Records
---
Amino acid sequence: MADVTELTLRSEAFEEGGSIPGRFTCDGDDVSPPLSWDDPPAGTGGFVLVVDDPDAGNFIHWVLANIPAEVRSLAEGGGDGTGVPGRNNFGRVGWGGPCPPSGEHRYRFSLYAIPELLDVARGASHPTVITAMHGRVLGRGQLTASYRRAG
């Protein structure tokens, strides 16, 4: 496989290594945060976004496939309408915000540039999406932040 280009993924709501504001979690409005990224490598046909919690066995909070190639940002609360949302580990389709049972958890937002849209349907599982894009990643960016529930 060719070299994977590094993408810069960011959010205006929090910084790399910072804290995710409560409004994006189960303790708040539980809306997806705003995200943006730079131009992808040549040949990009779409994007896949995965959000997981490595402190909870890589619990999947969001799978969003088939983000169109021309898109460079997802508005707050608007991601599920931009691509094809998959099923998270809460058993729902779309965004499921941080909701750690105790302590502070990290959340990885991983964006992948792929050469063409995937043949996946709404509600596809994380393994289905990962298998569909296997060996086809042109670029990758990651943003990691944490959340600690009050109390």
---
Amino acid sequence: MTAVFVTSTGTDIGKTFVARGLIQQLRARGRTVEAFKPVITGFDPRTAHASDTGRLLAALGRTLTPEHISEVSPYRFREPVSPDLAARHEGTGIDFKALNAFCRTAIGRHKDALVIEGVGGIMVPLDAHHTVLDWMIEIDLPLILVAGSYVGALSHTLSALDVIERNDLKIAAVVVSETVGSATSLADTADTVRRFANGIEVLALPRLPEGMLDHPVMAAIADLM
């Protein structure tokens, strides 16, 4: 496996943090890495460095230029809402076929490691007819599913696993990312997910400082590639 799609059970769960950690681990091993977040919402060009796109570029060791931003994230919208709404409010839309073609081109040309990060959760609408799930089905990459440890995360995670399994998609690993202040522990959440995950590797990632990407869980994810 040399290419993965990083998705999650919802927004602000930790997709980009996991993607950055994976990129850093692979680069530290001498691997050549390409990474894309083709669709991003809540993107403000004035604070591009703080965006998911900006953080991915930093992890890749690439400069924050308009050209590089466009290469990594061709579909960028200002409002921090679902992509279909954000695009509609800007009087535009996401061309689903073009989005898939963009990803297939990246998959076809990558020479070593490729990380594609999704947007929102697996059922977030991209347009009037397609969700992130449809996107994942079209490009058919192994998935890294990032979940939280908040109360309610178990239902969200097991529902996501069920939907993914029903659509014959492969999950490389589930990463349970610690939710600060949750009434339930990271360990208990990960253990419960593990019992229902049908042999899928489940990794428990504690809440780490923003710049601390060198962690055994990140190394374990990199080992999958």
---
Amino acid sequence: MGREGGWLRALSDPPTAAALHAIHAEPEQPWTLAQLAERAAVSRSTLTSRFRTHLGLSPLRYLTRWRMLTAASYLTSTSLPLGEIAARVGYSSDSAFNKAFKAEFGVPPGEFRRDRSSA
């Protein structure tokens, strides 16, 4: 996170807040940087710069992280099938979802669910 960063700064910055709202409200959408920048009414480079300053991540890296945290929540709090969870967080392919989840948490989603349910 940058020296000027933090959630309060991110939320008080209208462009960053607009993009965050879009990501949080509709994580299943196939967001592109251009679409998020349009929502924020700034250029792609400006949005990326503001995200990096406030949150230490690019907008698309933040989107992936949010999707994976949301998926982890579904895995631990519901019995939804993995394919349904994948779709709810924006993945049309189970293999793409599994790969992204494993990259974020170090284990595939099924193993994550088993580990958390047995704990």
---
Amino acid sequence: MSSVAVKHPNGKLARLDGVDALRALAIFFVLMNHVNMRLLLAKVPYTNGLPEQLVSSLVWNGQPGVQIFFAVSGFLITSMSLRRWGSLSGISLRGFYLMRFARIAPLLIALLATLSLLHFLHLHDFVVSSKTGGLGRALLAALTFHVNVLEARRGYLPGNWDILWSLSVEEMFYLFFPVMSRLFGRGKLFVAILLVFVLLGPFARVVFPHGNEVWREYSYLGGMDAIALGCLTALLVSRIHFSRVMLWSLGSIGIALLSLVLCFSNQVERLRLTQFGVDMTLLAVGTCLVIAVVAQTN
């Protein structure tokens, strides 16, 4: 997904570097998390002697990285929709779905074709086991955006398939986003619906999984609070211009929340924020505050 662009006084479009930086941070954390797991499986003691919190911050922030990406995604999609159609109520359903298809389908199909070939070649760590339903079931889940549901019910797919759980959450949200925008985009009900998603996020991570650890991390509602917050941020910055003092305040709070969750996870757990599922919500709020500042200062 390309970064949202803003117009300079000379009429040219420019990328929001701060948004790109947040997305780069999210990608870094996800990649480091997967590299870390591979090294641990290979029994490489590369973290020996390092402080526990440093290790946690560098290589165990994969889930927070995805949460940051969800917030960025919600902001970008909503901003681009407002720029393209003028208002959410004016969204073209056909145009929106074609836009999403063009962005997602080519790479997704190429990825699935590659993974299927590696499965048929019986390469280690690429074979989808019969326990999870085999290759056909994995393909169906990927193409209909319920890899997260499959893994919650039957166990993890190979790591190269497992990453598609986040796409399942994101695209399920955007499946209904344009319809809800057309129906409720003119009034306050749309904002209320987004706030409901935000409120349900912690419950989806703690209460609704009923002890299913996969669903605790991979559930639809567990990630949609961040997407909804990103949408709300795009609506807010399109309607309200904050003063410089307010922007400094919002930015400071946002950076503080990001730093708290990403750099002081042990303290976050001691405060029981993780236990109640609000740590990821705070992370998304911090991300959105930074995005709001970036959007109004370029």
